[in-house]
Design brief:
- The chain has three helices and six strands, in the order αβαββαβββ.
- By secondary structure, the protein is of the alpha+beta class.
- It has a single domain (24-143), classed as Translation Initiation Factor IF3, CATH 3.30.110.70.
- Strands 1, 2, 3, 4, 5 and 6 form a six-stranded mixed β-sheet that branches.
- Strand 5 and strand 6 form a beta hairpin.
- The model is unreliable at 4-21 (pLDDT under 50).
- Keywords: Signal.
- Residues 1-22 form the signal peptide.
- This is Excinuclease.
- It comes from Acinetobacter kookii.
């Protein structure tokens, strides 16, 4: 009987964690400020520029519609801290992919969480749940 109660309690607790995680809250944070911080502290090397959709970039598009979808541990961390960290992971992936393809910019960047495209000229979207934070972006590689 004790084992059944223990198993039931564990299942209910796990169900609560899953339910809490499923209720991601969406946050908007300033994209350019986050990029500038990442370049300033050396996370990004500055050789690749990043442009949100609707901002002027110019250049020639090399590849369209590249997607990055990154997650990080957000447990007991603020949304701002978790989202900044996971955005950096997404930008590092874009930077490395751009350089490998002879591009020096990622343009037309949109938030792409759960394949839902959200355009902004100033912010990116980040989903923050109880234990995980995630950023998904879609953009084009370009040579400026």
């Amino acid at each position: 009987m004790f084992i059944k109660k223990l198993a039931l309690t564990a299942a209910l607790c796990l169900g609560g964690v899953v339910s809490a995680q499923a209720a991601d809250q969406m946050h908007d944070f300033n994209f350019q400020e986050a990029v500038s911080r990442a370049v300033a502290d050396g996370t990004l090397d500055g050789s690749v520029k990043f442009y949100l959709a609707g901002t002027k970039a110019g250049g020639k598009v090399i590849k369209k519609g590249l997607v990055t979808n990154k997650k990080t541990n957000g447990f007991a961390k603020s949304a701002e801290s978790s989202c900044d960290h996971v955005l950096r992971s997404a930008l590092i992936q874009f930077q490395n992919t751009a350089k490998a393809n002879g591009a020096n910019a990622v343009t037309n960047i949109v938030s792409f969480y759960k394949s839902n495209e959200t355009k902004s000229t100033t912010t990116y979207k980040c989903a923050k749940g109880m234990a995980v934070a995630g950023v998904a972006l879609k953009g084009d590689l370009a040579k400026l």
